[in-house]
């Protein structure tokens, strides 16, 4: 159905039963994905126009890619930092932050690295960033522990300034066309991608030799141990879990997606909020109790009313 026909207002009957359950729930999890930030203007990963589709992004979000071409990986992440800094949290981010302030037993597990939940005022104590943040940087030298949080410098170093075409449009440096313009040396007059000299990339102020890297979890890397421990402790402490809301995520990435079944094992009812009712991933969210179809930015504030 065309999006025009899609109800972004939830069917009454579901809304009442959901709100009745929410009001008597004391242990609640919200699992967030890129769909929560979509209407702020940030591209999702797998949907139409998603990051992983037009870019070699899935290949870029790995330690191997960084070892092979740190300049390109930094262009990708500097561009995403730039995009995230130029958009604003939306009503879904604010509604979740408000619920976190009101409900003591509420915790948000976010796969998003865009910094929009913290910017919406979500209390840090109940916001667990499963995949790190675009605005944390750390030393890539295994033995050096240097880490920096809340680094909003844009561009992070001058060499990573976002290239623009001759008529001033910003070029996403990792799209195939931009890559070709550089790799195949197509002297496309309006795509001028600077070769990146390693010396111009961010270096560690402590060990001096290590390259700094984005403080995100790449594919093949473990999620932050302290974050995982906090969540396990929260789940252990819950005699039962009343509700898990799975918002704007294709629930395909593990171990993040595994929290849905973990919550269900402790009695949780499952509410899915997603633009696309066909994006029913294998992660078991298909056994859901509520499904609200539409834009999270419109639906989430209504659910919490
Ligand atoms: C690990 C940070 C081991 C970087 C990310 C085969 C089977 C199972 C697992 C694996 C496998 N092969 C490999 C694995 C493991 C792998 C994995 O799960 N791969 C997947 C692809 C199969 N996992 C890992 O590698 C993890 N690490 O396993 O380590 C280990 C253990 C111990 C010691 C050493 C090693 C690490 C995973 C983390 C990777 N990092 N991000 C970066 O962002 O650049 S993942 C990336 O995907 C983002 O974090 C993103 O958040 C996440 C999930 O994507 P979504 O958020 O769900 O976004 P998506 O576009 O997919 O979906 C958007 C949804 O929103 C859609 O459903 C859409 O319909 C909906 N939507 C769109 N608009 C709206 C909307 N909904 C509502 N409103 C809207 N407006
Ligand atoms: Zn270092």
Concise synopsis of the structure shown:
This protein has helices at residues 12-24, 35-38, 51-54, 57-60, 63-68, 70-85, 91-102, 116-119, 176-183, 225-237, 258-265, 296-303, and strands spanning 28-32, 106-110, 127-129, 132-139, 147-148, 212-216, 243-247, 269-274, 290-293.
Would you tell me the structural class of the helices and strands? alpha/beta
Specify the helix fraction band.
25-40%
* Average pLDDT for all residues: 87
Let me know the number of strands.
9
**Low-confidence parts, pLDDT < 50 over ≥5 residues?**
1-7, 184-189
Strand portion: 5-15%
Distance between the termini: 28 Å
Description:
Strand 2, helix 8 and strand 3 form a beta-alpha-beta unit. The radius of gyration is 20 Å and the shape is globular. 33% of the residues lie in helices and 14% in strands. It has 305 residues and is an alpha/beta fold. Helix 7 runs parallel beside helix 12. The N terminus is likely disordered. A six-stranded parallel β-sheet has the order 3-2-1-7-8-9, with helices on both faces. The site of ligand BV8 has 35 residues, from helix 2 and strand 8. It comes from Melanomma pulvis-pyrius CBS 109.77. Belongs to the sirtuin family. Class I subfamily. One of its GO terms (molecular function) is metal ion binding.
Layout of SSEs?
Blueprint: H1 12-24, E1 28-32, H2 35-38, H3 51-54, H4 57-60, H5 63-68, H6 70-85, H7 91-102, E2 106-110, H8 116-119, E3 127-129, E4 132-139, E5 147-148, H9 176-183, E6 212-216, H10 225-237, E7 243-247, H11 258-265, E8 269-274, E9 290-293, H12 296-303
Parallel strand pairs: 1-2, 1-7, 2-3, 7-8, 8-9
Antiparallel strand pairs: 4-5, 4-6
Helix pairs in contact: 7-12
Keywords: Metal-binding, NAD, Transferase, Zinc
Active site: 131 (proton acceptor)
Family: Belongs to the sirtuin family. Class I subfamily.
